[in-house]
């Protein structure tokens, strides 16, 4: 199968890049572990660059069949509600946090806007969503939850080391898994050792979510929406504070646990099912809509050809005569859809054109109303660019119709 065909068949997972400085220039990147797992299980990663204004252009990345959000800087505290703007931290505490976590405490407003917009898009359309590390925090904030501005400072009894700057890949800490959750099914363990790299975390978990795992200090390490979780049906809404994609044995790509890649595997499974659902394979109504779209496109092509032949005949009087059937589609379209100008209508009346059969006329009106309703239904699913192209097409056809009508009505 050609690569072009695969690109139209495989579902698309949107991932937002992270910005860093390299050679005195900003560079956008996404961790390859994430990309590799998405591709491995049968989807295509589509990277959304962290660039100013991209949050207003997300329609350009459609179709979106899934969203994976991963690491990044701290989320701007203004996005989550807390009466104490400093979260109970003194100015000295905040300075200490910034010094200890210099690479993560600088907020990135553009990345916040892009990722929150994508999270809300997923929530509004039930698009599968997987959040890893910062991505889980984005999901919680988008649903009304709050965050600890610094876990080490605000969970006073915490003895858990959630980040080790000297041993990023090798660092592990324990988490306990809640029974009856997807994590328990995937890992089949009461407790696992996870890799993490964060200094913030979920403070108040949004009401729609259920916790799946906790670290010994009580911090939520994983959560999901039980009411919106059935991968086989295209439903997946989950956040993991730890990094299953990085939990690999030293010097090897082998995972610490067989359950580590399952979050990605089940996420892509949901993405594939969601794509089938929106394409109509799981939804008869959507299938009917797609069928109607194809039929409308076929009819449009026939009408375009008919008008093209008619215009060619009009412009070039020496053109060979085409078959009558080639012109019938355009004639039928004009008969049922052309609205005459006041001048054209007046000239037709002067020539004796009248409505001779009122019942037939009423039937035609009803049929036109049905066609208009169908057109509105189909066009309502088109993008702004497609509508613009369609409008340009009909303006051109309108001019052709007007020219031909004037020629036909011109006195000999």
TrEMBL record:
Q: What's an example GO cellular component term for this entry? A: cytosol
Q: Which PROSITE patterns match?
A: GATASE_TYPE_1 (PS51273)
- Residues spanning the membrane: none
Database matches in InterPro entries: Class_I_gatase-like, Peptidase_C26, PuuD-like
GO MF, one annotated term:
hydrolase activity, acting on carbon-nitrogen (but not peptide) bonds, in linear amides
**PANTHER family membership:** GLUTAMINE AMIDOTRANSFERASE PB2B2.05-RELATED
Q: What is this protein called?
A: Uncharacterized protein
Q: Which organism is it from?
A: Platanthera zijinensis
Q: What is the lineage of its organism?
A: Eukaryota, Viridiplantae, Streptophyta, Embryophyta, Tracheophyta
